[in-house]
């Protein structure tokens, strides 16, 4: 019999009723067999496998339909563990790790040979973070290997912030989706690398550039293009709904210029437009950027399942997490 789990106001059919679980032992056993599981982090859900086993890593790439040129983040149980997988670590990297870990900051460091090349797409650097989620930290502490984990969505699509989102994407392919509730941060980790003691920003995320700069000083911004992205989360189309999406500062004008369309709105704060709109999502009534980030992907998932003609998203203020949210929204727009 098919059972269902709630996902916002829709219900997701679950083929395997045992799929969504809080059973850490089951999750650990699957990982020891080189199988892939989904797990919660404070940012988004991840598809995790043993970072030391190329066989497990291959399964992640094939499940996500992710190109092999796009390297994975290795999730570790403690800041000290960084030295098992990375070398020549600059002093500043230890300093930011002390400040932000466990938490949504990923560090790109020189890799040690214990890290398989498939994780790093052949690069000599490895991306590392210590996630801040009690379920996943407990799991990591029960294992003698770290976990490679990209976000648990098919390549290019909207990232998952609930176990139900993951079940909708991969319900037929996974045995275990560890349930840790709704992700509290809601967008991916911020990624930085280093040139000597200078921090370089690769991907904006749950930690704002402003907060980082309090610790590392002025960030250098990494520039890359789509043909050779340093962090393919920076590809120009990514995090995208299947519904055509527009991004604008002037939502009213955009609504009126699409009179014959079934429109969904993704607004920051105010909900003042109802004419000619089928559904509206407001990210934060209070105008709180942290709350907006937390709600972003769930709102995009809901809008994407309403058979709308178009989604019109409102551009947020270009400050703090507003910048990270705008970055994701820009990449959600069809070019
Ligand atoms: O919050 C997060 O970071 C989530 C959770 C699950 O931890 N993970 C996540 O993974 O967003 P993923 O695979 O969707 O994005 C990882 C990004 C990619 O853009 C990848 O290119 C970049 O990290 N990356 C990984 N290794 C790298 C490296 N050695 N140099 C530069 N970028 C790297
Ligand atoms: Mg991703």
Structure explained in plain terms:
With about 325 residues, this protein is of the alpha/beta class. The protein has 2 domains: about 220 residues, DHBP synthase (Alpha-Beta Complex); about 90 residues, Threonylcarbamoyl-AMP synthase, C-terminal domain (Rossmann fold, 3-Layer(aba) Sandwich). Helix content is about 30%, strand content about 20%. It is built from 11 helices and 18 strands. Strands 4, 5, 6, 7, 8, 9, 10, 12, 13 and 14 form a 10-stranded mixed β-sheet that branches. The protein has a 4-stranded parallel β-sheet with strand order 15-18-16-17. It has a two-stranded antiparallel ribbon with strand order 1-2. Helix 10 runs parallel beside helix 11. The radius of gyration is 20 Å and the shape is globular. It starts with a strand and ends with a helix. The mean pLDDT is about 90. Magnesium ion (MG) binds next to loops.
In percent, how helical is the residue content?
25-40%
Any idea of the CATH class of the largest domain? Alpha Beta
Question: In the CATH hierarchy, what is the architecture of the largest domain at level 2?
Answer: Alpha-Beta Complex
Q: What's the overall average pLDDT, rounded? A: 92
Indicate the CATH topology of the largest domain.
Answer: DHBP synthase
CATH superfamily of the largest domain: DHBP synthase
| Broad shape | globular
- The number of domains: 2
């Amino acid at each position: 019999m098919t059972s269902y789990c709630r996902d916002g106001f829709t219900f997701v059919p679950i083929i395997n009723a045992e799929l969504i679980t809080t059973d850490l032992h089951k999750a650990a056993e699957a990982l020891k067999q080189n199988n892939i599981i989904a797990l919660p982090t404070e940012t988004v859900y991840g598809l995790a496998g043993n970072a030391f086993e190329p066989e497990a890593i291959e399964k992640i790439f094939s499940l996500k339909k992710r190109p092999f040129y796009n390297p994975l983040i290795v999730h570790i149980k403690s800041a000290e563990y960084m030295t098992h997988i990375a070398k020549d670590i600059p002093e500043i990297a230890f300093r930011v790790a002390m400040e932000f870990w466990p938490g949504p900051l990923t560090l790109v460091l020189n890799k040690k040979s214990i890290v398989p090349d498939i994780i790093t797409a052949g690069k000599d650097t490895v991306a590392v973070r210590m996630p801040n989620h009690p379920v996943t930290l407990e799991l990591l502490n029960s294992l003698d290997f770290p976990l490679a984990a990209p976000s648990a969505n098919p390549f290019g699509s909207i990232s998952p912030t609930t176990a139900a989102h993951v079940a909708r994407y991969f319900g037929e392919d996974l045995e275990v989706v560890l349930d840790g509730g709704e992700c509290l941060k809601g967008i991916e980790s911020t990624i930085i690398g280093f040139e000597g003691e200078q921090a370089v920003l690769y991907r904006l995320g749950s930690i704002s550039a402003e907060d980082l700069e309090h610790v590392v000083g002025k960030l250098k911004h990494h520039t890359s293009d789509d043909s050779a992205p340093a962090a393919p989360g920076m590809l120009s189309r990514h995090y995208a709904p299947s519904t055509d999406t527009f991004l604008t500062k002037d939502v009213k004008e955009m609504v009126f210029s699409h009179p014959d369309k079934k429109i969904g709105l993704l607004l920051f704060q105010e909900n003042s437009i109802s004419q000619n709109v089928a559904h509206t999502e407001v990210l934060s009534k209070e105008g709180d950027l942290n709350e907006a980030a937390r709600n972003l992907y769930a709102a995009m998932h809901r809008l994407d399942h309403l058979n709308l003609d178009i989604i019109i998203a409102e551009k947020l203020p270009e400050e703090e997490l507003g910048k990270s949210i705008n970055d994701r929204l820009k990449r959600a727009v069809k070019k």
